[in-house]
Every structure is written in C-alpha cells, then in structure tokens.
Design brief:
UVB_sens_RUS_dom, transmembrane helix, mainly alpha, UVB_sens_C, 272 residues, 8% strand, RUS_fam, two-stranded parallel ribbon
Length: 272
C-alpha cells in the first residue's frame, strides 16, 4: 500500500511500482489464506468448519463495508494533500499491526508445533512440570526467536542423516526406534520411519530439541554421536512420563503441527 501511495511521485516508474506492489499483495494474500485455514480448523470445535468460514466471511464483508464508508469521508480530505495522506497511512498501519499482534497473542492452540513443544519440554526437564496450552502460548514468540541452537530438519532423506557406513552404524544404535537422528552440516537431522505414528513424531522431536539446545556447530563429530546416544537414554527414561503429562495438561497429541518433510524410510534388522 505504501508503495502504491508513492507511485504518483515517480511517473517514469509508475507501472513498475504498481506491478511490484501487486506482487507483494499476492504474497501477503497467499500467506494470509494459509494462516486463516489453520485458524479456522482450530476454531471448528464441533467439526463445524463451514459454519466458521461463513461467519468469518460475513464479518470480513461488514468490515469492508465500514472501510468503504470511512474512505468516502476521508477521500475529500486527503485529495491534493500528500502529507495528510502519508500521516493517515502510518496511523492506520500502526493500528492494524497492533490489532493483529493482539489477535495473534489471544489465540491458544492445543496442537504442538516446534516452538510450543520446545517450551513444554524445557519446562518439564527443568521443573518437572508440563505447562498448559494457555501458559505455553503466552511464552511462544510471535516474531523470530534468536536462540543460539542448532537448527532442526525433520523428515529428511537418509543421506542427510548419515554420510558414511560408520555413521550409519552409529545412527542405528537403537534399531527399535522408528526414527534416525544425526548431526550433519550444522543441523540436527531426523529421518522418520514409514511406520511411525504421532507419538513417535513427538518423541523424535523432543530428542532433536534436547540435542539442539546442547550442541554447537563447532563441536567434534564424535561428540555429536555421544550426545545422540545420551539423548536416547534420556528420552527412554522420561518420555512416557512426559507424554502422560502433556495429555493431562490438555494438549492434543493425536496430531501435530511439526514441520515434517515428506521423506520416509524403511529399514530391517540384519538377519544372522
């Protein structure tokens, strides 16, 4: 919108500026549509997604009509007054961003994504306490979080987890686990079995978060695999209690919003 307001001041570049603004609007529309779908599913508590969508559409129509009425009042005031136009733009943009921030902060999601699961796991390991969805959503960052941890990649190909037969042997230290974990290229890489369930996804992610919090990209490869082994021991000891605590706290453990890629792997134990 700001780019469109500036377009008349650059007649030679008017077409390019307006087209660029249209591209940005399209990107925002796609992102907004994806976010709206997730929130609609969250709000459809009684499987009434169509009803929620209809009400959302009617509210949006009402807001657009109100905006039209306000614009009819403002247009005569801002015509031939660039200073007032830009001032009102920044005022309304600030109000819009503030309202969106408060709206996002008011949403309480009961499904686990990476940020919420990390908060819950850290509380559990530090205090032995599983926070509720309301408490966790208050701590979840709205903007990017700048923590010095290794990034996590989920559902990757096998060659991204192991890069040699020796690493493959180390990754298979727990043949009964429905996932493989390795640390390569400065990332915690998780390869998921084709037979893994939601519980296994949560378990693999907990292990990856624990590793991410405790490793640095400058560490040695041998240290990495020692920490992977320790993470298996920790999760074997604590995960059942953690999972029960998560359910008791009101979290939905039947599905997750973890950002898994589509790669899945099948492996079989060696027959002697």
């Amino acid at each position: 919108m700001f780019v469109e307001i500036l377009a008349p001041f650059f007649p030679a570049w008017f077409t390019l500026i307006v087209c660029t603004s249209g591209i940005f609007k399209s990107v925002v529309g796609v992102a907004g549509g994806a976010t709206r779908a997730a929130l609609t599913v969250h709000q459809a508590r009684r499987d009434n997604m169509a009803d929620i969508s209809a009400k959302d559409g009617s509210q949006e129509t009402l807001v657009n009509l109100a905006g039209l009425l306000v614009s009819l009042i403002l247009i005569p005031l801002v015509t031939d007054n660039p200073g007032l136009t830009i001032s009102l733009f920044f005022l309304f943009t600030a109000l819009h961003l503030f309202a969106n921030y408060k709206a996002v902060r008011s949403v309480v999601m009961e499904t686990l994504n990476e940020a919420r699961l990390a908060i819950v796991l850290r509380h559990f390991l530090r205090d032995g306490y599983v926070p509720t969805p309301l408490e966790t959503n208050r701590e979840e960052p709205v903007f990017l979080e700048f923590r010095k941890t290794l990034p996590i990649k989920l559902g990757v190909r096998l060659q991204e987890v192991v890069q040699s037969p020796e690493q493959f042997r180390l990754a298979l230290m727990r043949k009964d686990a429905p996932f493989l974990i390795g640390i390569t290229n400065g990332c915690v890489q998780v390869c998921l079995s084709a037979h893994a369930h939601t519980r296994d996804e949560i378990r693999a992610m907990c292990q990856a978060i624990w590793l991410s919090d405790r490793l640095s990209p400058s560490g040695r490869h041998q240290d990495f695999w020692e920490m992977v082994h320790k993470s298996y021991i920790l999760i074997d000891t604590e995960f059942d209690r953690f999972h029960k605590g998560v359910e008791a706290a009101g979290w939905d453990v039947t599905r997750t919003l973890l950002d898994w890629d589509e790669w899945r792997l099948e492996w079989k134990p060696k027959i002697r």
